[in-house]
Amino acid sequence: MGRLPGMVCPAVAVNKVIAIPPEPLVHMAPDGSAISVPIPTAHFGPAPIMARFLSAVTREGMITDLKEHVPNMLPPSSGLIIHCHGGGFVAQSSRSHEIYLRDWACQLKVPILSIDYSLAPQAPFPRALEETLYAYCWAINNARIMGSTAEKVILVGDSAGANLNIGVAMKCIELGIRPPSGLFLAYVPVLVSIVPSPSRLLCLMDPLLPFGFMIRCMKAYACPPKDDASRTSSDTKTLEGSGTESFEEVSESDLQELAAHKSALSNGSDTLTSVSLTSLQSKPEADESVEDNGPPTPTEQNMSELLEKYVLDSDTDSEGRMIPVLRTEPEVEENVLFELPPRQDLGLSSKLGRAVGNIASYVTGTEPQQLPAVIKQGQSMSLGSESLEVLDSLMQRSPSDDMHFTIPRDPYLSPYLASDEVLKQLPPTKIVSVQLDPFLDDCVMFAKKLRKLGVVVSLDVIDGLPHGFLNFSQLSKEARSGSNQCVKRIQELLCM
């Protein structure tokens, strides 16, 4: 997903990676009082917080790569969007979510700051929440360098990122910090717990959020080692990028499983800017460009080959340009006994299911035709040794091996457990879920609870799309339509 934005997404005027330094930060509350924002220190002490700044247009005061003044520069925007990406608290980055953020920046014409919070298992709860709160306050204090007056600040997030956004809003209520003007939450889990609700049973057959992976995400994020709380920054090393610090209660196989899903922040051709509160008092210094990373690594080459061979096909858009699209139909071998009639397009879920099936065949070292799914002429249906080897490889690790842990009942981890006194103070909230989402029940019950408490809330349930559909908004017309619905709801929050 980190490679797709450059191929299929619209261009933006500003796309910069910035580092927010862990400096003392004072936030002016709505009542005029000065509040000291806590610096993130959980698990490994203070460290810079990475974020990506996106804007479709250049505005006055905005940090850009332009060396000369741009004539007719637009005035600052009254709105500011602060985004937290999904990924089960263990994976993805702002770069992998550019695939829809660029489009949102172009449609909304509002600056977007996407936070690259630290990921579990190296940084379990509450590290990500601390960093997101700090980055939120920093963004309000320094909105001018993002071309905004911050009159309207909307917290936007999907999945795990949406969970963090609710936690940030609750922290603002607790500490007396200015709360966000609105919350936009896409397929958000509000109860981080093993609850067998009807929709969560879908993850038993969900190609994008399988049960075993969801359990490992919960374990990695919500269950740090017992002795981890006593560690200080003096006896631990600072986590840099995608560090390799491990925890005893997270097994080696857990780390391997989660590492396979991680999408480390890659600067590529972006500009890395360290934005210090002290330096902002004067004119910002010239940006320092990141050096070229050179030719692609073997891993990147293998991933490109995987995408081209098993997932993506090419198509031509209305302007005659070649664009990548999800492969819709697998190749059918000749001399098959039964041939199904042509099928109608079953939508994104069907396409993703086939794509994941192709990837599974690639990972297990078998070609799709090696599996006994097609009966050829002159052959009987039987399980060969190759198929048994595939089954053995899939049964080597059972999800039950990962379920021996206890998740704390913390409202900042599971916002549904928060008190009514706190929840009724949440800002206007727009929730979008999907029909095939394991967290659909979470979204429905949370919306009902907020409405009962008098919070302005709306819930959209989109048909035929899976969890994480936003990351496929440039590859599927169904996902694109769902993304446009999200833009509409965010625009409503900006206009409230």
From TrEMBL:
Domain Hormone-sensitive lipase N-terminal: 2-62
Protein name in UniProt: Hormone-sensitive lipase
Domain named Alpha/beta hydrolase fold-3: residues: 81-229, 409-470
Gene Ontology biological-process annotations: cholesterol metabolic process; triglyceride catabolic process
Biased composition, class Polar residues, residue ranges: 231-245
Gene3D superfamilies, sorted: alpha/beta hydrolase
SUPFAM superfamilies linked: alpha/beta-Hydrolases
Region (Disordered) residue spans: 225-253, 277-303
The species this protein was found in: Cryptotermes secundus
MF-aspect GO terms: sterol ester esterase activity; triacylglycerol lipase activity
GO cellular component terms listed in the entry, alphabetical order: cytosol
